Amino acid sequence: xxxxxxxxxxxxxxxxxxxxxxxxxxxxxxxxxxxxxxxxxxxxxxxxxxxxxxxxxxxxxxxxxxxxxxxxxxxxxxxxxxxxxxxxxxxxxxxxxxxxxxxxxxxxxxxxxxxxxxxxxxxxxxxxxxxxxxxxxxxxxxxxxxxxxxxxxxxxxxxxxxxxxxxxxxxxxxxxxxxxxxxxxxxxxxxxxxxxxxxxxxxxxxxxxxxxxxxxxxxxxxxxxxxxxxxxxxxxxxxxxxxxxxxxxxxxxxxxxxxxxxxxxxxxxxxxxxxxxxxxxxxxxxxxxxxxxxxxxxxxxxxxxxxxxxxxxxxxxxxxxxxxxxxxxxxxxxxxxxxxxxxxxxxxxxxxxxxxxxxxxxxxxxxxxxxxxxxxx
Length: 377
Ligand code: FNR
Fold this sequence. Notes:
Blueprint: H1 4-28, E1 39-41, E2 58-60, E3 63-65, E4 69-71, H2 79-95, E5 99-100, H3 105-109, H4 115-122, E6 129-134, H5 140-149, E7 153-157, H6 160-165, H7 176-186, E8 191-194, H8 202-210, E9 215-217, H9 226-233, H10 248-254, E10 261-265, H11 271-279, E11 284-287, H12 289-297, H13 300-321, E12 334-336, H14 338-346, H15 351-354
Parallel strand pairs: 4-11, 5-6, 6-7, 7-8, 8-9, 9-10, 10-11
Antiparallel strand pairs: 1-12, 2-3
Helix pairs in contact: 1-9, 1-12, 2-4, 2-12, 2-13, 11-13
């Protein structure tokens, strides 16, 4: 007879396989518009700088990351997850991108699945690795997950909407804030609190700050949609929650100005979306869904080439808008339109100021830049 525990563990592994399959299906749909389309850079045709002058390094807490992009938490715990994590880890090792695991909870409950997480460290011994657990877990689970991956940081995910839609999900959320506080206290590495695609509001970020969280990934809507994924698994009982939550654009506009380290993810489709999130104040930008299909269907080499293409284009886009570093994007002029504008108006956010930020930096110095070449003279 199969014990209840064993059944729960094998169904957890089946759930991880479902997540990969259904998230990959979402990626195969034509990429739709999302609130990143409501954000536009005001184009200044003489602000461009040399690509060679761009330095993509960014500071997140005490760390310096070589590029402002990271592979966000996705998977672990099943056969396909092992394959996906190996590809992602090899690509992270070659490109220098920080990488998060999917929720390690399954491996803490069932150590036979640990290898599908350990592969992330084995393939990338020197890289920046983040372990991941849910906020509903006991406080010591964070450190146990960190130990398993020898991780540099812990991602702690808040997923109340996903749990609600999951037939087997939790129905008890009242202790989560205390749980976050206890996990921060019990974990030896910095804790990054993240959503899973429904956004972190100003109120939530303020609460997190109060319990000692210094780094948060707003992970908003408009990309991988766990209401739709879990709804598909559970017979569509909560199909109407498909548009619940806030986009990363809305979250970044709404975030308290003094939150120490904001990260953004959710709905990033291409390097221009990365640039926009950085320009709205994110220190770095997480990507999950867009790297899932190449990790699932391609080789580690083709995934690496895809990530290198993102990084190179991001460098070119910085030069195009005249930002030598991600931090310099803070003085680009951004037009907030459409649904994002309506959100900002309803929340009392000054978007006129964001459209005129370049005024503080004045006009570029004409003597700067390289010598003109022969033809230009
Ligand atoms: C996720 N995500 C996620 N997040 C988390 O904190 N723990 C997890 O275990 C998972 N699992 C997971 C599986 C799969 C297959 C995907 C695609 C995503 C959520 C992820 O980190 C991110 O917050 C959202 O996917 C939004 O980003 P994208 O996909 O729009 O770039």
